[in-house]
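Action item from last week, closing it out:
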Amino acid sequence: MNRTFALSLSSLVLSSGFAFAGGTPDSGTIPDGGFDNSLVRELHINAYMRAWEAGLPIADVDGSGGVDGDDIEAFYRALAADVNGDGTLNKYDIIPMFAVWSEGGAAGDLNFDGGVDGADLEAFFTALEQFTLPSVEELSKSVEAEPRDPKGGPDKHEATLTDE
């Protein structure tokens, strides 16, 4: 069964604590029939990449003290671990994680190995403990507050991509 969920774009950007049909992010429940949060995830990814490209401290998801390529991997792992889809990684993701993990579907594959097993629970709790997932609102505010180089200068950090 497909469900339609209508939210205004401004409410998605300005608030990471919107209500689900049948549950709320704070309740730790998954609504009946699930929730398609692809637009929320897309906004989150775009906001994060803008902050990462600018080298803003908020993009240091892995807590290493610098903004680098490892933060992108940590961001995607933290975003996958945000099982209830509220835009934050916290204790309210624990019950939904066990629910999706027990179903064995793709949403439970948090270590991206193609299967759902105990390693995914380990990946979830590692992400919960080690990574900080900034909300769309926090990312947007940080990017907006950043002074802009009118000449379009280089990023504040350098990313080196190599073919191995």
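Closing note: The longest helix spans residues 38-53.
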